[in-house]
UniProtKB/TrEMBL annotation, chain A:
Fe cation binds at Y224, Y225. InterPro entries: Ferric-bd, SBP. This is Bacterial extracellular solute-binding protein, putative. It comes from the Bacteria. The keyword Acyltransferase does not apply. Keywords: Iron, Metal-binding, Signal. Residues 1-26 form the signal peptide. GO terms for molecular function: metal ion binding. It comes from Methylophaga thiooxydans DMS010. Belongs to the bacterial solute-binding protein 1 family. GO terms for cellular component: outer membrane-bounded periplasmic space.
Amino acid sequence: MKPFKSFFTLIPALLGLGMTPGISQAAEEVNLYSARMESLIKPLLNQFTQDTGIKVNVVSGKADELLQRLKLEGRNSPADMLLTTDAGRLHRALEAELLQTVSSDILNERVPSSYRDPEGHWYGLSLRARPIMYAVDRVNPEQLSTYEQLASDEWDNKICIRSSSNIYNQSLVASMIAADGEDTTQAWAENLVANFARPPQGGDRDQIKAVAAGQCDIAVANTYYLAGMHYSQDESERQAAEKVAVFWPNQADRGTHINISGAAVTAAAKNRDNAIKLLEFLTSDAAQRWYGMVNGEYPVREGIEMNDTLASWGEFKSDDLNMRQLGELNAQALRLMDKAGWR
Amino acid sequence: MILALLLALPVIVVSAHVFLPADDIWQHLTETVLADYISQSLWLSLGVAVGTLVLGVSAAWLTSMCQFPGRGVFEWALLLPMAMPAYIIAYTYTGLLDFAGPVQTLLREWMGWGYGDYWFPPIRSLGGAIVMLTLVLYPYVYLLSRAAFLNQSLCVLDVSRTLGNTPSQTFFRVALPLARPAIIAGLSLALMETLADYGTVSYFGISTFTTGIFRTWFGMGSAAAAAQLAALLMVFVLVLIVMEKLSRRQAQYHHTSRHHQQLKRFQLSTSKAWLAFAFCLTVLLASFVIPAAQLLQWTLLVADSVIDDAFMTLVYNSLKLASLTALLALFLALLLSYGKRLFGGALVRFAVRLASMGYAIPGAVIAVGVMIPFAWLDNSIDSWSRTNLDFSTGLLLSGTLVAVIFAYLVRFLAVAIQTVESGLGQVRLSMDEAARSLGHSPLAVLRKIHMPMLRGSLLTALLLVFVDVLKELPATLILRPFNFNTLAVKTFELASDERLAEAAPTALAIVATGLLPVIILSIAITRSRQLDSDKA
């Protein structure tokens, strides 16, 4: 049967178009589909290769599209591991039966149970908080309390937030539907849209910059964007970051909305053991410290060192809503925002 | 025919989803956002159409037919914006002109204004998107209409002048109508690209069809409704094509004279010449120099940390894909165009039309359209070989560069076909017939008549596809093999994380890599034109 095999692998090779995936398993390696940008995790992966001798092959891209690819490739998919930046997508992968369970004492001990799938389909790696940010010189933090309160008249024409096409806003609204119910959240979204200082545009950094420049007083954005601005090579970004502070909403009730980035071993994995090793590495002290020091996200483990900026924002209570629900309520959240005219 | 259908496969696959039920999503869409998607897409297309026509045609006429200071430089420099991806120019102008950007900040400092004290055109708006897209897309119209103007026979223009038409009357009454097929071809490329744009509109927060498709597909998890939106988008494009065909009716735009002499350019009066100079300079500054300078400034900020060996690999990968695809696309376009010319049945025409629809469809949709049949084929072969030969072949095509290049072809073939066809349109059928009746074989006709006359168009087709592939993002992102990155992928990674400064070096490299062929080919096109006239 050998000739056939070499014939089949030869076709693309002849075309000079590179190797066929899935066949080259000789060396120790692990194949990763990553929704986290390659340039951002590369240093971590290099460290892993150095420590273990296992080579990491990466395709990075948008989570939904990677999921689609994984689904279509089926049992022949070359991917061993899927890495995403939100729990909703991990849950979608689970529902599409693209993941397998992993039971590792190391992982179970390191990752708090609220940040992993009860059956071990996926594990959280870092937390991404989405608090309120305000202009230091124009807003008294005592005026702020909850996400719900952002819909009150006092913030008329003062709020900047990005488009509802963005998954962070979809997750935030999903968490509010879970907490307050659909009707209340619908009314909230309509009032919030009425408070927008401008039509939603740009990314999270743009909202923060608009607050710094005085176009609005309040933004809702993920913390690592503000942290990134503090350490930016561009001086104007650093100056803008100084004018904006973080407020942790809903501390008296459910807590501030968070999402998690996480990873899972695929159902089709051919390098299962190596994938588990990589998962364990990503929850190790060194890797977790990288999340807090370099990346500006909150490590999923407690007691890990973070950079000064993160430390200065202090501790906060986070919404312990089950991550599954974010995925399940996503479509409903998007429709609700469509109806509210949130672009 | 079969070839065309093969290339149309992804489009067909996507359309097939139309027949799946999409629950109540349509009711939701029509009640809330659909009207927005339609009106915003229409306004965007209309704005870009007007913008690219005005900039492209007037620049082409000025540089090809008039004499004014700097003409020789503008002639090729006006092509430069082609190398600039739309989303990059959007990012840079936003960085410059946004409320928090340096321009408005300076204004506020000088005038002592605060927020709300003054009005400044908001860059992230429908109008802003129209301007951004116009700036990078007008070269399509410019390139094709310039080639058409240069190819126009001297006699026709001379006759027009002898009959007492002024240069501007000659332009509106003779040159413009004659160049119409080329102008329309350029315009439809620009519009198809506009409809497929995702990067710019999503960054500016504009609700067009493309943003709608992705919201529905991923946000609401409905592939069916998303495909139905995509199909609606295709209807848009079909209407566009049909309208053009109808307005053209049976008119043929062949040349009837063989006098191809070096055209004498109109000598503009001093004031008009400076006006022409100022016009071209403004276009060039706005569409290329300013954004490129901003990218350069950002690059200098971060150069040490970004440019290394890995960077050169990116350049190499991008070049390899772009040149391979450009050659393949040219070959296929020739095959299809000749097929249509020689055996022009309705079915062949339809198949060619279908194959060129891909240009108006967002790259990510094409990518999924490519993945579905490829993965199916791979998995079928694998199952067969597992049962019959007892080993697994794995995935043969999915996740290889074959898939990537196939997707490029589906998406960009329209560019090559449009250009080749508009070139082929200039070769009169009567020329073929004359040559054949003089005893030349079909091959000899091809070599002696078609090739010299088509050279400019073929080069243009190569160039357009090359540059388009260089800039392509969504399909590359999702279809590429492990550890394979291109300049566009790298730029996107950093820009999507809102690290504009760090994204600048690779963005600049896309522009620089795209420049080289743009310059070489624009020189070659000018020269091929001169050779022709020397021979005459």
